[in-house]
Amino acid sequence: SLIFLGLVAAVCLGLNLLFLTVYLICLCCCKRDQEPDSKRPHSCCITWMAVTAGLICCTAVGIGFYGNSETNDGVYQLLYALDHANHTLTDIDSLVAGTTLQMQVGLEQHLARLNELLATRGDYLQTLKFMQQLSSSIVQQLSGLPVWQGASANLTELSSQVAYVEYYRWLAYLLFFILVLTICLLACLGLAKRSRCLLTMMLCCGLLTLVLSWASMAVDTAAAVGTSDFCVAPDKFIMNQTESEISAVVVHYYLYCDQSLSNPFQQALTVFQRSLTTMQIQIQGLIQFALPLFPTAEKDLLGIQQLLNSSETSLHQLTAMLDCRGLHKDYLDALIGICYDGVEGLLYLVLFSLLVAASFSTIICATPRAWKHFVGRDRDYDDMDEEDPFNPQARRIATHHPVRGQLRSFCSYSSSLGSQSSLHPPAQTISNAPVSEYMNQAVLFGGNPRYENVPLIGRGSPPPT
């Protein structure tokens, strides 16, 4: 079913690309017979299409950031619950192993030395033998507790895999958001600067983003549906996965943690507590009656008493850890993280993918129309007369190429040589006073200094032909 959802997204991608292809073919080929003015797109329509696509794209990125953050929070809540449960199971195994070691090694050593020291008293030896039986009973009850080593290893592996996948998923979506914003910026710059290079680059990146958006939608949809299926009945799934390692009664006790359910470890813990209490009473009697008679047994008797006190502390910790409330809370926290925040974030990411696909489809449709609009405007500028004073290009050409070089075309030096030779104005005696006076007056009265009313001879220019 998850593969089917991925194929549905692939079919949607194919339909989207087919629609864009048909649209571009119709835009390029079906309007050749129309008049140039009628097939020229309106810039207002292109602008509104670009603005709408940009707003949809920005909205999609915002939704994507929120969905990515929600999914990340849910996954990390799941990881925290898994780590806490893993620590609890590891601590249970360590407490059971430590207590068993104390009873089998530490207590046995003390009892062996006391058997040698108290060999002359049969009643004391009988007490030591009874204590040894109680310690064997405690070890037997501890051995009946489930070993969580396999479950702890599975939780550790699951946690590491989920953390690895989540890190790269979060990073990939972050890079995807940056790519979407960059392409939107390229589109805005291309339309603003009328750059065909930027529009071509944006068109290629837009097609890539379109494919990535549909691919991300397929992955997010499959992940959301699969997670939702797990969240419908997580108890059955966990019991099926752990039936080969842990008893079904124990798993049921931790998954439901109902007050009506009996603790499957209650009998073992009760025997442990009673045996430990009996051993403490026996060791107190030996300290009270045997120690005055056998002072050399003080070290072993106090050592046994200290060992029993330590075992009692371990018993209380073990009772608290084996209670269903701690692990059940971790189980609920994990479910809330993955089934609420995680699925909600995945749904927002699906919406993000759909909006990105819609916005980039709009941008890809608007790009050829903008291209034709740029071509039409360039053709209009090319058809203008360069000598038209109202032509903006003619003004720019005049600005970059001043008319000083064109003054010689209005004068004929060859035809005016006779008049210049008849006048023979001495170059040394010519005065520039009228010119400077005229220039100063023009500046004083706010005008620009002009040469139209200055005598030609005073300007040093040849007379007109």
Keywords:
465 residues; ion transport; 15 helices; mainly alpha; Protein tweety homolog
Overview of the molecule:
One of its GO terms (cellular component) is chloride channel complex. It is a multi-pass membrane protein. This is Protein tweety homolog. Probable chloride channel. The protein is an all-alpha fold. The chain has one domain (45-377). It is built from 15 helices and no strands. Helix 5 packs antiparallel against helix 6 (196-232). Mean pLDDT is 80; it is low at 35-41, 376-385 and 394-448.
Please render the helix and strand layout as text.
Elements: H1 2-29, H2 36-39, H3 43-117, H4 122-143, H5 149-193, H6 196-232, H7 234-242, H8 248-256, H9 266-293, H10 298-322, H11 324-383, H12 392-400, H13 417-423, H14 433-444, H15 456-459
Helix pairs in contact: 1-6, 1-11, 3-4, 3-5, 3-10, 3-11, 4-9, 5-6, 6-11, 7-8, 8-11, 9-10
Share in helix = over 70%
Number of strands: 0
Strand fraction equals: under 5%
The class by helix and strand makeup works out as mainly alpha
Function: Probable chloride channel.
Membrane topology: Multi-pass membrane protein
Keywords: Cell membrane, Chloride, Chloride channel, Glycoprotein, Ion channel, Ion transport, Membrane, Transmembrane, Transmembrane helix, Transport
GO molecular function: intracellularly calcium-gated chloride channel activity; volume-sensitive chloride channel activity
